[in-house]
Structure formats: structure tokens, C-alpha cells
Design goal:
- The N terminus and C terminus are likely disordered.
- Strands 2, 3, 4, 5, 6, 7, 8, 9 and 10 form a nine-stranded mixed β-sheet that branches. A five-stranded mixed β-sheet has the order 12-18-17-14-15, with no helix packed on it.
- The protein is built from no helices and 25 strands.
- By secondary structure, it is mainly β.
- The protein folds into three domains: about 110 residues, Immunoglobulin-like, CATH 2.60.40; about 120 residues, Immunoglobulin-like (Sandwich); about 50 residues, no CATH class.
- Strand 23 and strand 24 form a beta hairpin.
- It is flat.
């Protein structure tokens, strides 16, 4: 058996494809006016299966922003196949307007076509008949930042860690906000979702700056869960615009078994009995021989951090925001950064970051 030990430090971290029988062709988009975070349906023909390659929408044209600036656009966005004639563009946002400078609404006018690439990135086929379209980016919420409060990630994070405090920084584009509302939904967990509404003080807003936006812990019987985050803005004219995205939430430390089984040892054949004489009329000879051998391979993981029964984040000189939680995660910064976590009174841990990452894994490396 083969195991992998996975350590999440900040929460920031094939085979040959089959030949495509015919070129994928775009017929229509499900909408030509959308806010960021809206899944856009894509309809066409000959969309390949995932084993045959990846499908992209190729936009070639001009984007006119709300302030009158114009930007030449040639961009490719991956879409995800539902069946041979239906795919979904899931990456329309949430972190930027896909056209222009990324933070203005406006109108794209030009041509869009499909392109199929192999899993290695080479172009397999191109749509010979692009579609002429006009696509409006509607007023939206732009998520400029979603990351742990102690992190400084350049790119959007791909996964989150349960029990860790996060910060979300958003901007309203194309409308004047009156209120902002945040939602956390966890479909696989009961009573874990929440919502928060606040008055807008401008087009920007930040949630979790004081360490009070903490993702729920991963349940003991689950390896991870999916969280849906929604940022919603209501304009002074009563219109509502929202941006939503999903992210996987995991533990800081995981043991993953990929299901593979490998032979540990091969034994050479050995004689099972001595010579058995026969006769002209033959002879029946019956015997049985059973031999069993069992080997056990074990490992352990050890940490030297005391239990954490509460989670406290200090802001400023004396103000404290705290809450009792099952799992606790905390950071302390001097010349280095220490990261620790604990669960009930059964497991605890510590990781240090000071130009050297260290973890104890039952033995010495």
C-alpha cells in the first residue's frame, strides 16, 4: 500500500489523449449579459469527452469599458463539458472582469469560437465558423482578495483550511452600493451556514479583517467539504448583484491513501514434496500444504504542541475577538512564523516557517 502525507501551510497551494473525431463547434451562449460569478451555459456540437481533450472559448474582439476606454481582446477560457452539446463556462469571475483591465464593466463585441486542446496543451482542433456576438458585463461584485488573514498570496487560493480565519476584500463595480451581504453555505453540513449584512461606506468592503471570519472545521468523518461563498451588494435604487464561488475546505494535515496495492516481495518456487514414484497402472496421491506469512508496516506522526481549546485573534494593543471551537489554529510572528492547530484532546500539531519547513513524521529524514 502507498500513502501520502499532505501538509497545508497557508492555504494559498495522464495518459495519451484520444484523437478527436470532429471539430467542436459553438452554436450559442446561454446568456449575453451576466454579472461576475454567473455560470454561463455554452451550446454547440461535438464537445469532446475529458479523456479526448480540453475545450476553450476563444474571444477575439474589442471591449468597451464603462469609462469609454477600449481594449483589444484575445483571450481563451476553459469550459467544462456536460454532454456532447452542452458545456458550462464557470470562470466568468469571481476575481476579475475577464476583459480589459479587470475592474470595469462594459461590452465585448467581436467573435467567439471553440478550441480543443490536448491535456498537454497542444491545439487539437479549431472552430472554423466563429460566432459574432455582443456580450455585456453587467454590474457586479469583484472579489479582489480571499485568503488567510496572515497570508499575502499573489494568485487566488485553490483550497481553504477549516478553522482558519480568512479575509475577503470586495468592490462594487457599475453601481453605487447601499448594503453588502455575505453568505457562507456548506451543503454537506447541517447548521454550518451563516449570513452577515452591513451598511456600505463606499464601493469597497472587507470581511474578516479582525479575525472573525472563520471557516467551519472539517467534520471528523469527512476528508473535506465544499463551501459556497456569496458576496451580494444592493444598490441605492434597490437592485441586487451577487458574486458566488465554491472552494474545497480541508484539514491542515491529511493522510491520503490512493487505493494502489503493490507486491511487497516475490518468493522463488521451492519443491513441495519429494519424488513420488508411479507404476504401470498409475497411482493416486493426495496431499495438502498451507503456509501463511503476515507482515505489518506501521507509521506514526508526532507533534509537540499543547492542546488548544479556544481560538483567539488579537487586534491592536488590547482588543480581542475570540470564540471557543473544537479545532484551533493560530499564528504568532516575531522573526519567524509559527503555525499550530489542535483537535479535541487526541491530535495536536505545530509547523514552523523560518526559511525551513519542518514536520515530525515518525522517523528521521
Amino acid at each position: 500500500m502507498s500513502f501520502s502525507l499532505l501538509v497545508a501551510l497557508t492555504g494559498c497551494a495522464a495518459g495519451e489523449p484520444q484523437e478527436v473525431s470532429a471539430s467542436a463547434h459553438l452554436l450559442a451562449l446561454g446568456t449575453y449579459n451576466a454579472s461576475l460569478g454567473t455560470p454561463v451555459d455554452v451550446f454547440g456540437t461535438n464537445f469532446p469527452a475529458p479523456s479526448e481533450g480540453r475545450i476553450y472559448l476563444v474571444f477575439d474582439g474589442l471591449f468597451r469599458a464603462e469609462d469609454g476606454t477600449e481594449t483589444q481582446v484575445y483571450e481563451k477560457f476553459e469550459i467544462y463539458r456536460r454532454d456532447e452539446g452542452h458545456a458550462v463556462w464557470t470562470t466568468f469571475g469571481p476575481y476579475a472582469v475577464p476583459f480589459g483591465t479587470g475592474d470595469q464593466i462594459g461590452t465585448f463585441e467581436g467573435r467567439v469560437a471553440t478550441e480543443v486542446q490536448s491535456r498537454e496543451g497542444s491545439v487539437v482542433s479549431e472552430d472554423a465558423e466563429p460566432l459574432d456576438i455582443v456580450f455585456d458585463v453587467a454590474p457586479s461584485i469583484v472579489v479582489h482578495e480571499f485568503q488567510p488573514i496572515t497570508a499575502n498570496c499573489v494568485d487566488p487560493i485553490k483550497r481553504a483550511i477549516g478553522g482558519m480565519p480568512y479575509r475577503m476584500h470586495i468592490e462594487a463595480v457599475g453601481f453605487e452600493p447601499q448594503t453588502f451581504t455575505y453568505y457562507l453555505q456548506t451543503p454537506a453540513m447541517e447548521d454550518a451556514g451563516w449570513s452577515m449584512r452591513r451598511l456600505a461606506t463606499g464601493r469597497f468592503d472587507t470581511l474578516g479583517q479582525e479575525g472573525d471570519f472563520i471557516l467551519p472545521d472539517v467534520p471528523a468523518n469527512e476528508p473535506f467539504y465544499s463551501a459556497i461563498l456569496v458576496a451580494e451588494g444592493t444598490s441605492k435604487t434597490g437592485e441586487t448583484f451577487s458574486n458566488s464561488f465554491a472552494i474545497g475546505v480541508r484539514r491542515p494535515l491529511e493522510v491520503f491513501y490512493n487505493g494502489a496495492v503493490e507486491p511487497a516481495e516475490f518468493y522463488a518456487p521451492t519443491p513441495d514434496s519429494g519424488c513420488i514414484p508411479g507404476s504401470a497402472n498409475g497411482r493416486d496421491y493426495t496431499w495438502s500444504n498451507v503456509r501463511e506469512e503476515t507482515e505489518t508496516r506501521s507509521y506514526d506522526v508526532n507533534w509537540d504542541q499543547n492542546w488548544l481549546s479556544t481560538h483567539t485573534v488579537e487586534s491592536g494593543s488590547s482588543r480581542t475577538v475570540g470564540a471557543s471551537v473544537v479545532n484551533g489554529i493560530g499564528f504568532s510572528t516575531t522573526n519567524s512564523v509559527d503555525f499550530s492547530w489542535g483537535t479535541q484532546s487526541e491530535v495536536n500539531g505545530q509547523l514552523g516557517i523560518d526559511w525551513l519547513v519542518k514536520a515530525g513524521i515518525g522517523g528521521r529524514r
